[in-house]
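hey so i finally got around to running both of the ones u sent me last week. sorry it took forever, my laptop kept dying halfway thru and i had to restart like 3 times lol. anyway pasting them below in the order u listed, first the sequence line then the structure token line for each. didnt double check formatting much so if smth looks off just lmk and ill redo it

first one:
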Amino acid sequence: MNDLAPVAGIHSVRSALKFGAEGVGELWLERGRRDRRLAELADLARAAGIPVKQTDRAALDQGAQGTNHQGALAWVRSAAPRLAGDLDGILDQITGPPLLLLLDEVQDPHNLGACLRTADAAGVHAVIAPKDNAVGLTPVVCKVASGAAQTVPYLQVTNLARTMDQLKERGIWLIGTAGEAAGDLYGTDLKGPIGLVMGSEGTGLRRLTRERCDLLVRLPMAGTVESLNVSVAAGVCLFEAVRQRGLTR
């Protein structure tokens, strides 16, 4: 299983089997556990030609590495990132105003995995990040993403600034987050075609990235901390967009 990452939990495993079955190498289920949901997972796996292994709880605990597996664990191949050349095709298939997430040199795999998971929950059409100085779709990222690495298109681009120009040519409004911005997230219209641009864990938005944003906004902070973790900030911003758009899943 060296080339596979564990995806644990009934909901996450179901998502992997439904939307990324081609990347699932094997399904582990807890031996002797009677649960209709586990039986459904087994049926999904067998229908896709994926081996199903009945195993004991100790093996599941070890494979899940502390994650609550609920008796189900899928071993998933690391998803392959999409490239800049795929962007137009992705945008052409979107119905309604696009909602994109741009991550500028996010390097922590747990942050990227959390961002992908939140992006999936919020209905984001694509996550875009630079190829250099940023973490890719590593096994750790895929594990934290809990199946979202297979469901949300993740584009690695050579030049993020150039890609931002391309998005603007397509009529997408780019909104960056910065603590010193005058505009407030909750006072910003997020209902149209937008790309939310988040900076890296340490330095925030790079100069060229910042300059290409159409608007900078800040998250209101009532406490003493100066900033939020990038994955938390991305969640706040994305679900404000969801709230404004009135989206339901």
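and the second one:
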Amino acid sequence: MATATAADGGGFDRNQNPYAAPSTRPAAGPAMKSLAAASRPVSGKNPSAGPGKKDASGVWQVSTPEVKLSNTVTDADGSTANLTFEVWTADSSGNPKTQVAISDNQYGVLVSDFVKSGSTASVTVGAGRLKPNGDYVFHTSAYAKDSGLYETSWSPWARFHVSMPVDLTLPNPNTSAPNPDQSAQPYTNLDYSAELVELMPW
């Protein structure tokens, strides 16, 4: 694995191989090799990113700075399980380029809470972790709580694009500011006839 550098966040050990086995990123818990004969947990085949929808090319379109990543997880033994989420920047073809640190842990990954077998596990990538108008892909690997076993491969990649919405909200008017439009000032009906008489004696 790569050597951590200050530029990587002080302890982030960036994964150099997007197809490296999940066992190289054991962030969810300690693997129990003595139970290797037990059924391993499995990630779902349709990971999703939101809030948003898929476009015609199959890319999830996310319009908020915080991104929710989700996938289902199943354990044949019925144990609760969680998912490790790993995010990479994507090239124009949707292939992974560089791993993105979506957390401050050593592996730069996020781990979901444990959920029941067959349920959806999710994590939220905090604002500032992903760049606006950026293209990304992510995948997941499962970990079973009771058996302590990891999935041996990753889920399929899911591609998403982060596009920040344009804020067209106008500021509230300052009601205490003077009105520059004098014609809009309140009309006062004043009688100046007496003063005119004194100024015009004829």
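quick thing i noticed on the 2nd:
Helices lie at 193-199.
anyway thats it, ttyl
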